[in-house]
RNA sequence: AGAAAGGUGGCCGAGUGGCUUAAGGCGCACGCCUGGAAAGCGUGUAUACGGCAACGUAUCGAGGGUUCGAAUCCCUUCCUUUCUGCCA
């Protein structure tokens, strides 16, 4: 959520930046600023009325104490009108504030200067590419066929016990999953991130804090009897640990990592693009979250990109980095880099990580502030990224490491797996 | 699920209708003291909104009510803790 004061101070620049998302914000900004003026004026009137009420009450108290009940009773009559008008003003103020709030919720974050204009994924800008795409032997397969051939994943079994999009990992497939989780967590903690295990169900306030609610309600599984949501990403519980917090400047940055399953309803397309591990309702992910001083957040974003790059480099998977264009940028993000690994057998790129700087957009919703050296409070910047999402990494490993003898295990994973080939 | 006790500032914690303008402590900041530090002493220190400012207003989990006046009384609701029950 943007701050009204920022909109006021940077109106033209913000309007221009939002055109990169294909949004003309001129009208909504005008509405916001008008509503805010209205709010201020109403608040001032209300404050004056209440101030008078308070001073009359004090007088009445004093009169009673000095035994002058008669005069006190005269004054009491005066409070009736004051009370009425303060009630009226306060309900006006409530509805104005609510209107303002609703307007603010509809406005996405302001894209950073680096964000390319453009509305579709074709406009994303490739900033980096590394790793050779292997030339596969005759008879090479997509990962879902490999998973079946080597008995690593049973998709039908998942359908039986739950439904489509809930695979069962088995044997060396399950072990490889566990190896990846441990490896990712180790890389993250080695880089200084503190490891957390967090709840997989969150309350409504948490959904609001990170921006999944109210807009994307349909994308989360909802447990009705207890009014809780299954997390779509560890970002939600991890970032919400700091909701309503006021931290000291010296405590920044706060860096966290955590492994969680993620649950996404994603009612949408079917077909080849969602086959196998490409899109699931439940998948595993290791996430990194940073709470940063605003002056340092973009440096931190670059650091996160470098960190994920190093992991993919160690896994020796062919990957590229995209700077998302305005149209592809998430609602809450100011700048996002997507990592994609090449699926050789499918001949296409698969998104495996998304690293974003939300600036103060989430912090404003979360009320996550820090106290600086002068004792002033301001919103911290929040960032997060996957390091990494498991299924597509697994798909990439299966497809890119397949040989006629079997699937080789990337060197860095061998100690975690306890085997070096799946055959 | 049943019973009981609670929810107060960055944190702990006192506070049963007006002198609460929220005590006291911890923490933090600054100063004194010190070779330097600790301790000690002194001063300051909640948040939000409005205002150039003085200042005003709101906020004691949330929402409603009683009252001229509510942290305090009443109602509703959420959450936490303890005990009982169930359970890995």
TrEMBL record:
InterPro entries: aa-tRNA-synt_IIb, aa-tRNA-synth_II, aa-tRNA-synth_II/BPL/LPL, Ser-tRNA-ligase_type_1, Ser-tRNA-synth_1_N, SerRS_1_N_sf, tRNA-bd_arm
Pathway given in the UniProt record: Aminoacyl-tRNA biosynthesis; selenocysteinyl-tRNA(Sec) biosynthesis; L-seryl-tRNA(Sec) from L-serine and tRNA(Sec): step 1/1
Residues that hold ATP according to the record: 264-266, 351-354
Domain of life: Bacteria
Keywords recorded for this protein, A-Z: Aminoacyl-tRNA synthetase, ATP-binding, Cytoplasm, Ligase, Nucleotide-binding, Protein biosynthesis
Keyword Protein biosynthesis set for record: yes
Record flagged with keyword rRNA-binding: no
Domain Aminoacyl-transfer RNA synthetases class-II family profile: residue ranges: 175-415
Enzyme Commission number, as recorded: 6.1.1.11
Predominant localisation class: cytoplasm
Subcellular localization, as worded in the UniProt entry: Cytoplasm
Gene3D superfamilies per record: Bira Bifunctional Protein, Domain 2, Serine-tRNA synthetase, tRNA binding domain
One of the GO biological process terms: seryl-tRNA aminoacylation
Gene Ontology molecular function: any one: ATP binding
A GO-annotated cellular component: cytoplasm
Stated family: Belongs to the class-II aminoacyl-tRNA synthetase family. Type-1 seryl-tRNA synthetase subfamily.
Protein name: Serine--tRNA ligase
Species of the source: Patiriisocius marinus
Gene responsible for this protein: serS
């Amino acid at each position: 959520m943007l701050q009204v004061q920022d909109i006021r101070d940077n109106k033209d620049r913000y309007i221009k930046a939002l055109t990169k998302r294909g949004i003309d914000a001129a009208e909504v900004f005008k509405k916001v600023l008008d509503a805010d003026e209205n709010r201020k004026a109403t608040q001032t009137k209300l404050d004056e009325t209440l101030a008078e009420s308070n001073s009359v009450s004090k007088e009445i108290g004093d009169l009673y104490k000095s035994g002058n009940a008669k005069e006190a009773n005269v004054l009491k009559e005066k409070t009736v009108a004051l009370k009425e008008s303060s009630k009226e003003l306060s309900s006006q103020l409530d509805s104005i504030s609510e209107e303002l709030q609703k307007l603010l919720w509809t406005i996405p974050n302001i894209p950073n200067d680096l964000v390319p204009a453009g509305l579709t994924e074709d406009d994303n800008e490739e900033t980096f590419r590394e790793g050779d795409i292997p030339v596969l032997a005759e008879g090479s397969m997509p990962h879902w066929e490999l998973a079946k051939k080597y008995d690593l994943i049973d998709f039908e079994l998942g359908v039986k016990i739950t439904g489509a999009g809930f695979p069962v990992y088995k044997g060396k497939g399950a072990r490889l999953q566990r190896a990846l989780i441990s490896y990712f967590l180790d890389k993250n903690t080695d880089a200084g991130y503190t490891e957390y295990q967090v709840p997989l169900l969150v309350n409504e306030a948490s959904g609001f804090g990170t921006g999944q609610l109210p807009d994307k309600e349909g994308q989360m599984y909802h447990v009705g009897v207890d009014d809780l949501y299954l997390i779509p990403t560890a970002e939600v519980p991890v970032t919400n640990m700091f909701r309503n917090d006021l931290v000291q400047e010296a405590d920044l940055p706060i860096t966290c990592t955590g492994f969680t399953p993620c649950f996404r309803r994603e009612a949408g397309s079917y077909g080849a693009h969602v086959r196998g591990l490409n899109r699931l309702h439940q998948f595993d992910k290791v996430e990194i979250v940073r709470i940063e001083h605003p002056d340092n957040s973009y440096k931190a974003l670059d650091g996160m990109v470098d960190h994920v790059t190093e992991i993919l480099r160690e896994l020796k998977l062919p990957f590229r980095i995209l700077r998302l264009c305005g149209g592809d940028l998430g609602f809450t993000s100011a700048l996002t880099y997507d990592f994609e690994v090449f699926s050789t057998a499918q001949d296409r790129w698969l998104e495996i990580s998304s690293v974003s700087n939300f600036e103060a957009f989430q912090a404003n919703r979360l009320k996550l502030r820090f106290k600086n050296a002068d004792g002033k409070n301001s919103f911290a910047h929040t960032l997060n990224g996957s390091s990494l999402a498991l299924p597509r990494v697994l798909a990439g490993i299966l497809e890119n490491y397949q040989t006629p003898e079997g699937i080789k295990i990337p060197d860095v994973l061998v100690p975690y797996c306890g085997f070096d080939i799946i055959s």
